[in-house]
Amino acid sequence: MTALVPMVICGLFFYFTYRIFELYARRKERMAIIEKLSNGIDPELLRNQFNISTFKDSSYGSWAIRIGLLLIGVGLGVAIAAIIDMLAVAPSEENNEVFYGFRNAISVLYPSLAAIFGGLGLVIAYFIEKKGEDKESIQ
Predict the structure, then answer these.
(1) What is the pTM of this model?
(2) How far is CA 72 from each of CA 14, 58, 77, rounded to the nearest angstrom?
(3) Do 35 and 63 reside in the same domain of the chain?
(4) How would you class 124 by CB atoms within 10 Å of its CB: exposed for 0-12, middle for 13-18, buried for 19 or more?
(5) Is 124 within a domain?
(6) Domain total for the chain?
(7) What per-residue confidence (pLDDT) applies to 55?
């Protein structure tokens, strides 16, 4: 524990030093942009340059769909991994190396299936949102 304290202090020192330099660099960049804008660049030219999506009132429902389907996917993946784990026939326990290797192989199923089914849940959420956007654009 005592060896960890100097490393944490050094890490925090370098992190905050970096953040201070970054703060001043950003300030100089912002000041340069303001100076250029005040020297005759038409702000209308920059209006469509930055296509940053804004939140619409209807987008709050999409977050609920995304999170809900992600959690359903993760839960389904963990449940399937647990079923595979229970149904898998373990090799004989006479050879412990084979047994532990088998258990390690099965333990990889839990995070991998959770990630796969969570990703599938997000893909399904994407298609549901896209279908909803298509219906809104038609009306």
Answers:
(1) 0.48
(2) 41, 22, 9
(3) no
(4) middle
(5) yes
(6) 2
(7) 47
Question: Do residues 52 and 84 make contact, with C-beta atoms less than 8 angstroms apart?
Answer: no
CB 126 within 8 A of CB 62: no
Q: Is residue 51 domain-resident?
A: no
Please check whether residue 52 lies inside any domain of the structure: no
**Identity at 62, one-letter amino acid code:** S
Residues 36 and 64 in one domain: no
Domain extent at residue 96: 59-138
Distances (CA, A) of 51 to 46, 48, 129: 10, 6, 20
- Model confidence over 52-84: pLDDT tens digits? 554 454 544 577 788 888 889 888 988 888 888
Measured CA angle at 122 (ends 119, 126), to 5 deg: 140
Tell me the average pLDDT across 44-51.
61
Cβ neighbour number for residue 113 with a 10 Å cutoff: 20
**According to DSSP H, which parts of the chain are helical?**
4-38, 59-87, 96-107, 109-138
Q: Are residues 84 and 24 located together in one domain of the fold?
A: no
Q: Are 60 and 101 spatial neighbours (Cβ–Cβ below 8 Å)?
A: no
- Asked if 12 and 70 sit in the same domain, the reply is no
